[in-house]
Amino acid sequence: MESFLAGVVTGLKATSPLEAVAVVFGLAYSVFAILRTRWCWVAAFISSVILIYLSWIGRLPMQAGLQAYYVAMAIYGYWHWTRDDGKATQAVTTWPLAYHGTAWAVVLVVSLLSARFLVADTSAWPFLDSLTTWGSLVATWLMAQVKLENWLYWIVLDTISTFLYAAQGFMFIALLFAVYLVVSAVGFAAWFRNWRSPVQQT
User: Fold this and answer.
1) What number of other Cβ atoms are within 10 A of residue 159's Cβ?
2) Distance CA 138, CA 81 (A)
3) Angle at 138 between CA 202 and CA 127, to 5 degrees
4) Which of 34, 64, 96, 131 is deepest in the core (most CB within 10 A)?
5) Nearest 5°: CA angle at 70, between 144 and 139?
6) What letter would DSSP give residue 60?
């Protein structure tokens, strides 16, 4: 634990201004998402553009590709949450359990397949790099569709991402994903209350 904390402190001291900006906008995205305001997608766009570059130089190509997807989803999310005067975000809904089972089965299979094409000199963690990438595609889509379970997906994926970035020396980004775990728990609680509220059910 002490070595991890020492690594975090060292990483924070070595943090580049570009990485710090990505972290700030990443946190802004999470807070705005909990509040279900379209500005979360603007913050996500800025953060993801920066993380494309940082992930690539950190030898996490699947993460770089994921960030590119986030950029596209940020554009879609902003449009979807803006249309009809923001009515798209008023109702939190859920996915049937069977849909989640199918989604995770597909994510695992595709992750195993893509990991076989990622060799050591292109990805430091082939399977985990792939799993977080494909899983995040589903989680981000669920977020854009205002599905309650997206926060549960993020709890799992952010845990893995925290490890990945810490292992590659990006301690500030690793700390960001650790904070995302807390944010995801808060987000789930907030959206759950909306989903269970009497107004929601009418």
Assistant:
1) 15
2) 18
3) 150
4) 131
5) 50
6) -
